[in-house]
Amino acid sequence: MEGAETKGDGDGVRPWQSYHTVYTTAKAGMEGVDKEKVQRVVYEMSKGSKYFQNEERKDAYIKQKIDNLRIQCAKLTQADLSNYQKVADRRIVELEASRDLSRIWLHVDMDAFYAAVETLSNPTLKGKPMAVGGMSMISTANYEARKFGVRAAMPGFIARKLCPELIFVPTDFKKYNHYSDLTRKVFRRYDPNFIAGSLDEAYLDITEVCKEKNVKSEEIAEELRASVYEETGLTCSAGVAPNRLLAKVCSDINKPNGQYILPNDRMALMTFISSLPIRKIGGIGKVTEQILKGVFGINTCEQMLEKSSYLCALFSQSTAGLGLGQTDSPQVRFRKSISNERTFSATEDEVLLHKRLAELAEILSIDMQREGLCGRTLTLKLKTASFEVRTRAVTLQKYISSSEDILKHAQKLLKAELPISVRLIGLRVSQFNGDKCSATFDPTQKTITNFISSGDVNRNCCNSSDVVADHDFVSNTETGLSIDSRQTSQLDWRDSVDANHLSDVDYQSFTVWKNDGVEEEQTSSNGAPSSNYSGFAEVLGSTSFQEQYEGINVKNGTNFLADERLNSCCQEKTMLWLNDYKCSLCGIELPPNFVEERLEHSDFHLAEKLQNEESRIHRTPFPTQSEGQKDVITGQSKSKKQKLSQKEYSCFDSLENKLD
DNA sequence: GCGGATCAC
DNA sequence: TATGGTGATCCGC
User: Fold this and answer.
1) What's the CA gap between A151 and A145, in Å, rounded?
2) Which nucleotides in chain B have some atom under 7 angstroms from a protein Cβ?
3) In Å, what is the separation between the CA of A537 and the C1' of C13?
4) What is the DSSP string of A494-558?
5) Which residue is nearest to nucleotide B9 (CA to C1')?
6) Which nucleotide is nearest to A136 (CA to C1')?
């Protein structure tokens, strides 16, 4: 690197240096790679393409964003910063206090999973650079290929340029599912309630196993990895830490075929987090990293702490967490939307586009009926020949699921965009209905859909009672949060988990949610399934509902997000700001200029008050909702808790959403 | 409720 | 020749 030349904006001596790809960021197996060369090749192969031009457009937009943030930053006065620093400090203290070091989590991550499985079924591939995928996209590359800079999500034709010997193997999910099942048999022995992240990842709570066997987590990790290898022939890596977020970070450290243990010790934790690059934290991606670096020069979590007052100032509720809290990751919930999309060679032929649209509508309808879903919002997605993405949506009075209905409305949406040259069309249905789709579904209609869906016309949401059951569930968790939904969800909720991504074993593993005592409380108090298993376990413990609620208040008092603002208008009067600074009800301090936070804070107290009233009425720690008020109450408590869980997932994750 | 954007796998 | 598909979430209207 020679200074001046390296900061070029594309017009310098080495234009490739300013082309931001995701392919050179530090990842397992990329250590010895000549990044400069990879960067250059990727740039050369991409330069001038429509894709490249779009990337440049997006990049310019991010640069603009960075500039704006810098300006805002410069406008902050010392007084502002001092106020924000107070808020930031308090949040840090609160999160510190809420940290739980009593659990031991293990994250397992299979090494180059698809590639490893393919090598297992074709040993001649051993030792040769190989990638699973095709010329347009690669899913996984083995470690031999990674030495050349070949990576997942890289187009195949670029990979071949980097590594002319590269062997391409098409994806075969049947195989991957099979081996995934084998690994999970092992996981289950260590934690019967393990949480499957994807085919090749899982989270295990090994606290009990360590106790029972009276061994260190390190030995459990070794033993588990040995078992996986023995029973599958595949290697994996493991990370052990007090929570899932950190466990996942740890499993990446000694990849492949290695492990890293982060002890449940405060100092060790702080040291570890301090030097951790922010990009390693789930939820911080390419863009957020770029912005934090560009605006504040932040690279590590420690630097986030140093800049906490600025982060609070610019991103409102943002960043107080800083990876210090209990946190936790994968949000496994019920499905909220169903979609499909296809890429093809760009065309503006309206007949062709219509044909594509009809095909998508057909497939989507089949998928929906297989899952017993009806929705009222339809979204059309288009990617233009220049890679610009557009979405157009309608929300209907009726709930739909038939291909005819979908196509009819999709066509209208598409028509409004014509003429247009597109390379991708997608359809998505959301806002699912629990109740009767019969209102819009005519069982007598003879559609291709009905025949294709395995001739099982009854297996749609209208005349199959078992499907109606989980239908109710989906609907109610989505909106109504009624008592019925809770009862249903306790029994059936896993049926509504996305079947496209999860195998049967996934369903199994997710029963943790309904079998766990915490989840019971969650569901009862929230009226919706928990979105965060361990986060809530750690925070809520086994306290009563009211205590839990106040606990959340203390920890999260200032962190309510803006989408409740609409409800806030008349609620300030439920409380007072003492000296225009301190909340009269809970004592939390919020400077007058924290307008949003104040509104949100008063929202919280209102919800709390309503909840208290409900508790009294029903004389039960987990109040059931009365018809009249349930929407308001559950709506409030639900949104608060979801935010809490998001907050805990990663203290950073809320940050990136504030960067616009 | 809509549309753009980001992220993870 | 050529840069994916599915689902979720958030923000600012």
Assistant:
1) 8
2) 1-9
3) 36
4) GGGS-TTT--HHHHHHHHHHHHSHHHHHHHHHHSS--S-HHHHHHHHTT--HHHHHHHHHHHHTT
5) A198
6) C2
Q: What percent of chain A is predicted at pLDDT more than 70?
A: 61
The yes-or-no answer on residue A208 being catalytic is no
Distance (Å) from CA A65 to C1' C11?
A: 14
Which nucleotide is closest to A42, CA to C1'?
A: C3
Q: DSSP per residue over A260-295, as a string? A: EE--S-HHHHHHHHHT-BGGGSTT--HHHHHHHHHH
Length A14 CA → B5 C1' (Å):
29
Residue count of chain A, please give it: 660
Maximum distance among all Cα pairs of chain A, rounded to whole angstroms: 76
Residue A1, classified by CB atoms within 10 Å of its CB into exposed (0-12), middle (13-18) or buried (19+), is exposed
pLDDT tens by residue, A335-388 = 999 999 999 999 999 999 999 999 999 999 999 999 999 999 999 999 999 999
Token reading at A239: 């990370």
Query: Structural domains in chain A?
Result: 105-127+169-264 (3.30.70.270), 337-463 (3.30.1490.100), 516-656 (no CATH)
pLDDT tens-digit series, residues A186-218: 999 999 999 999 999 999 999 999 999 999 999
Pairing state between β A167-169 and A337-347: unpaired
Q: Which residue is nearest to nucleotide C5 (CA to C1')?
A: A341
Considering all nucleic acid strands, name the nucleotide whose C1' atom is nearest to the C-alpha of residue A431: B1
Question: Tokens 């964003």 map to which residue?
Answer: A65
- Which one-letter amino acid corresponds to residue A188? R
Report whether pLDDT(A253) > 50. Answer: yes
Bases in strand C with any atom closer than 7 Å to a protein CB: 1-12
Please tell me whether any atom of strand B lies within 7 Å of the Cβ of A578: no
Q: Tell me which protein residue sits closest to nucleotide C8, measuring alpha carbon to C1'.
A: A336
Taking residues A158-170, what's their average pLDDT? Answer: 98
In the set A94, A118, A144, A201, the catalytic residue is A201
Q: Which of A352-366, A502-516, A609-623 bottoms out in mean pLDDT, i.e. has the lowest? A: A502-516
Through-space separation of residue A139 CA and nucleotide C4 C1' in angstroms? 9
Q: Which range has the worst mean pLDDT, A5-9, A166-170, A254-258, A427-431?
A: A5-9
Q: Give the span between the Cα atoms of A100 and A47, in whole angstroms.
A: 49
Dist. CA A415–CA A393, nearest whole Å: 13
Q: From the CA of A394, how many Å to the C1' of B2?
A: 8
